[in-house]
Amino acid sequence: MTSLITSGSARTGRRLAAAIVALGLAVLLPATAAVAQDGSPSPAAKKVFTIGIQQDPDSLNPFNGFLSSAYEIQGIMYDLLTGWSDEDFSPVPQLADSWEKSTDGLTWTFKIHPGVKWSDGQPLTAKDVAYTFNRTINGENERPKYDAYVKNIKDVVALDDLTAEFHLKAADPIMDHLWVPIIPEHIWKDIDSKEVTSFSNEDNPVGSGPFVLAERKPGEFIRLTANKSYFRGGPKIDELVFKIFEDEDAMVQALRKGEIDAVDSLGGTTFQSLQGAAGVTTVQSKGLGFNEIGINVGAQTVDNKPIGDGHPALKDLVVRQAIAYAIDRNALVDRVLRGLGEPGSSIMPPAYADLYYTPGDKEYKFDLAKANSLLDGAGYTRGSDGIRVDPNSGKKLSFRLFGREDSEESKGSVQFVQGWLKEIGIDAKVTIMAEDKLTEVIGAGEFDLFEWGWGVEPDPDFQVSTFTCDQRSYEDSGEVYAGWSDSFYCNQAYDGLYKQQSVQLDRPQRAATIMQMEDMLYTDLPYVVTYYQDNLQAYRSDRWTGLKPDASGAIYFGYGTDRYRSIDHPSEPSDSGGISTGVLIGVGAVVAIGLVAGGIALARSRATEGDRE
Amino acid sequence: MATQLDRVSPGVGPTPGETPAPTPPAPVKRRFATGAATVIIRRVLGAIVSLFAVLVFNFFLFRVLPGDPARKLARNRHMSAEQVMELRRSMGLDRPLGEQFFTYLNRLVLHGDLGPAFSKGKMPVAEYIGDRIWPTVLLVGSSTILSIVFGLWIGIKGAWQRGSTFDRLSNAMSLTLYAMPIFWLGIVFLMVMAGNQMGLGLFPTGGMHDVTPPEGWFANALDVLHHLFLPCLTLTLAYLAEFSLVMRSSLLDEMGQDYLTTARAKGLRDLRVRRRHAVPNALLPTTTLIFLHLGFIISGALTVEIVYSWPGLGLASLEALEFPDFNLLQGIFLLFAVSTIVFNLMGDLLLGVLDPRVREA
User: Fold this and answer.
1) Which residue stretches of A234-351 are H helix?
2) Residue A604 needs a FRET pair 20 to 30 A away by CA distance; which of A130, A358, B125, B234 works?
3) DSSP line for A363-425
4) Chain B contacts of A257, Cβ < 8 Å?
5) How far apart are CA A539 and CA A349, in angstroms?
6) Cα distance between residue A248 and residue A251, in whole Å
7) Using one digit for the tens of pLDDT, what is the confidence trace for A377-400?
8) Spatial separation of the C-alpha atoms in residues A186 and A206, rounded to whole Å
């Protein structure tokens, strides 16, 4: 009886193994062949450009979506009235062919390009423009994202199909750079203001841009198809895909392999590893931002109520100057950025040429002796431990220095700065923390020095505003909220200049005012600007051509979304990428072999068990 | 295992409402029936209490973290302090913490609503989780099943043929895999099997679908399998070791027991002794382990999801944490907790069925 059962089960075992083997062969091999058959003809005909990114957009709804990937993709789906020039970021026609302002700057008239159609075939007219702006101005949920652009607009009227007239409360230089995507009235009139907050806009959204959203898989990719009848010329590619990678190494592998065609926002090490890689061209463009060592110059709320526990010696300009002389910005670029950047001076990056300030004679050239003599001269004498003492408060010059956990560059910078400060008798206690935590301690004024940075838009208003008195922390029902200021700089003369530039419609005049403000900041040192980090991208130049850099040199994620239209295969198209038939058969073979091996092993083990009995 | 220690004290009386078997059985059997009912009720109550504790803990845990989602969205975006405040208000973050908690509970308990996900354009949290749960279930589910099957097989075979070449090899391999960081293992597979610089270039480097998915249901399923292979392999190898090692050691424990000698002395064949006597007893710790693992199916394998950009819940929780998106975090972690608690409960109950000592204690 027992032997019957065991031999029976051994037979079952062999049969099971045979079945697994059969399954492996029967399903996988023909199946991979099948995929290869219906897979291969279409991708060869279709031109698909795939960009690897590391940030899933938060929303594709123009009234929502704040991440840079969301801005980029919304900018592809919709048009603005004006774009940015590829030479110098100055305004260029996009939906509007031309525009003019009244002498007082209170009335602006935009002429819309004739014959523009929405992706559903309806004509795009000045009425859509008026609808977009009026809705944004008056909508409780629509306004927050675009407030900076519409704050001075009273209303917008469509004079005829191609003319939109803007009426303003006050002159505003932002008017020729209105970063508000124009949406179709015939679609959005059915989406009420309450619904707009959570509307996903992913179900066949109607736009006017060069690409139309085809499919979004959250956490995976966003696929857009070309609008071949785009009014400024249809894209040469058929599809544009943004594929999301969480891991940078995996993304770079995919580029090397040709699974994707381009990558954005690379780290310095990966970028350098791609230099010289076969078929890959690396693109190093000027960063549109800066990094700084921020200084607590005396934290106060907007009502001048002191908050926090910043070191009193940092209120002394001499100490801040000594710190500025003690920071070797060239060394930071070489050592921390691996040479991929420029040493810093001002809060406007060099990419914005007409706003970029150079200090000339005033420059705080790296000079430890000068820093030491400044401090000696101001009475900061060294104690027995070599640390200087503040003659006014009697406290040691011992500062907290905060770096950011998420950034290798930040951690590197604070290490270097700590070393230099030690040379001038200042003790810096380094703490590395998350940006969220840093935001919190800065808002509360509980810091001395920190390392962080800003991205800067072509319009300088926001960046210069972060140093105004109004941007210091504010108190609301007993709770302190951070404004945008993270140095607590407050200077009436600076605020006056800020007001002045905010109504200057003449760009050179406004640029001159901005320069004055930058000079003031350079002199007063709420920040020591450390460097401008380059923006690092790479693409498969063996398969693609026609990538058009913007004014900073970036080939995508730049300003103006004209870029994707000119991308094309080179005239001699090489073998298109994707998964080849061979690969698929290889996969099938590997899996099948595994199953066969497993099955045989199983059968053998059963057999031996049977034999042993 | 903790679950085994958590036994019910003897002498608990019959519970009203729970009907014993209709025909009055032998006294021993009745004692079992009422005991089992008590055990079940106790375990279920325990699970409900833990669930509520998790609900409260989750809420306050994430609020203690520094971070202001409104500011995060607005940074570098040309928004005034008033607009940031407006954004904060629209997220309900300007209310006192107690009030926020009450709103959260109220919404969850009365309407089953987890609130909007602020980092996902205010999409309902439940809907977003619904999108992201299946990739994780597919990945962790398939690799858990594979690792259980292969792990148990290796463990049983190794223990039974203790000291054999198979045992020594498999044991060494299991220990190596057990000690290996999953992240590293994943990167190695990625370089070797997916990359084409030093590797074979056989598999995609990430994601779950091709960006231009093939037509047809079957071709689509194959496309997903193609993407699934490497993450599943990585995870299977990582889990495998635990199962095989635990199975091996508990079978070895049983093999020294007197009842096996008795069984052999009765003249039973080796295979029968192993299948009927040794393995069922040795399976008990492994059962606990399996159910602990099933609980993690939902919480997934964060590291593997990161390496392979697998669009599951692990990755979603990371994105939510970076933001930080409180509602989404709460929703995801509630789900993690529920799955862990439910599978633990099932494991406990099943252990009672499998092991008379547990239900009679």
Assistant:
1) 248-257, 268-274, 317-325, 329-331
2) B234
3) -----HHHHHHHHHHTT--B-TTS-BB-TTT--B-EEEEEEETT-HHHHHHHHHHHHHHHHTT
4) 194-197, 201, 205
5) 25
6) 5
7) 999 999 999 999 999 999 999 999
8) 10
Please tell me the distance in Å from A261's CA to the nearest CA on chain B.
12
Task: Test A245 with B206 for CB contact under 8 angstroms.
Answer: yes
- Helix, strand, or coil here: A101? strand
Q: How far is A564 from chain B (nearest CA, A)?
A: 18
Dmax (CA) for chain A in angstroms is 108
Q: How far is A318 from chain B (nearest CA, A)?
A: 31
pLDDT of residue B110: 82
Show Cβ contacts of residue A22 under 8 Å, excluding neighbours closer than 6 positions: none
Contact across the interface for A34 and B218, Cβ inside 8 Å: yes
Among chain A residues, the shortest Cα distance to B77 is held by A66
Q: How far is A60 from chain B (nearest CA, A)?
A: 8
Helices (H) and strands (E) in chain B, counts: 16, 2
Mark which residues 94-133 of A lie under 8 Å from B by CB.
Answer: none
Partner B contacted by A23 (CB < 8 A): no
A223 touches chain B (CB under 8 A): yes
Q: Does A482 touch chain B (CB under 8 A)?
A: yes
Residues of A in contact with B203 (CB under 8 A): 587
A83/A179 Cα distance (integer angstroms)? 9
pLDDT in tens, B298-348: 766 788 998 899 999 888 888 888 778 888 988 998 888 888 888 888 888
